[in-house]
Automatic annotation (TrEMBL):
This is Release factor glutamine methyltransferase. Its EC number is 2.1.1.297. It comes from the Bacteria. Substrate binds at N192, P193, P194, Y195. It catalyses: L-glutaminyl-[peptide chain release factor] + S-adenosyl-L-methionine = N(5)-methyl-L-glutaminyl-[peptide chain release factor] + S-adenosyl-L-homocysteine + H(+). It comes from Roseomonas fluvialis. Methylates the class 1 translation termination release factors RF1/PrfA and RF2/PrfB on the glutamine residue of the universally conserved GGQ motif.
């Protein structure tokens, strides 16, 4: 990479050139992402880079950084490049086998914690990285839970995340058909199901459409297939007084409430994400 202002091979030169390359590729926060990538390669903090911009970057580190930069220009998600992402109070490993946890999904955690007594039993359908289940368990030290995912690699990743965050003793993960593999009743059921209509997936941002697993995105022709499956199971999974909290796609609240009503469930509340979109729907058994 050539220099922008600093001598070639320096931290500042790498950051300056990378910022330009990322901006040209349409990345929204090019300077921040350049710092994230270089800090990852150099195993340091971002503020360390700013402290000494003329520090030299070793040849191998520069090559590694350039390789990652090319992948980001191709719109591979940043989380895949650095291997982890922050969610709630947790640091979670990610992989192409799972959706990358997003801040919008923290609305599900907030809704789940509201009124959920410590010591309860939690089920997470389609657990992915384990983000929802582990976030709830981190806030309720007497609770325990089970996460189910149909992708074995996802279940293994979730188990590693539980161990890395000190929650392995209270979380178990199964690779199974998540809407029929579990018997028993739970005080809280969580799910972030696939809810994108099949025809809409190619138009999603490239980081999602190209790199995140189709199984975790594709909700069928109307985006509601997974809700029909999951909600149909809820009467057999919820303990008396139990609640389910489902993530919603934009504009799906009324349709999901209708599906729930047909299964003998009632929507008792909803919570919006930071963008004001109805994101978390809380359901309970009717009567």
């Amino acid at each position: 990479m050539t220099s922008c202002a600093d001598p070639g091979g320096s931290v500042g030169a790498f950051l300056c050139q990378a910022g330009q390359v990322l901006r040209a590729a349409g990345i929204e926060a090019p300077r921040q992402e350049a710092r994230m990538l270089l800090a990852h390669v150099l195993a340091c903090r971002e503020e360390d880079l700013l402290r000494d911009p003329r520090a030299p970057v070793a040849t191998q580190a520069g090559a590694d950084f350039t390789a990652l930069l090319r992948r980001r220009v191709a719109r591979e998600p940043m989380a895949h490049l650095v291997g982890h992402v922050g969610f709630w109070t947790l640091d979670l490993a990610v992989s192409p086998d799972t959706l990358i946890p997003r801040a919008d999904s923290e609305a599900i955690v907030e809704a789940a914690l509201d009124g959920f007594a410590d010591g309860g039993r939690v089920l997470d359908l389609g657990t992915g990285t384990g983000a929802l289940l582990l976030a709830v368990l981190a806030e309720r030290p007497g609770a325990w839970g089970v996460g189910v995912d149909c992708v074995p690699a996802a279940a293994r990743l979730a188990a590693r995340n539980a161990a890395a965050n000190g929650l392995a003793s209270r979380a178990a993960f199964l690779a199974a058909d998540w809407d029929s593999a579990i018997a028993g009743r739970f005080d809280l059921v969580l799910s972030n199901p696939p809810y994108i209509a099949s025809a809409e997936i190619p138009a999603l941002m490239p980081e999602v459409a190209r790199y995140e697993p189709a199984l975790a995105l594709d909700g069928g022709a109307d985006g509601l297939d997974a809700y029909r499956r999951a909600i149909g199971r809820l009467p057999a999974l919820l303990a008396p007084g139990g609640r389910a909290v489902l993530e919603l796609g934009a504009g799906q609240r009324a349709a999901v409430e209708s599906i729930a009503a047909g299964a003998g469930l009632v929507a008792i509340s909803a919570r919006t994400d930071l963008g004001g979109i109805d994101r978390a729907l809380v359901l309970a058994l009717r009567g």
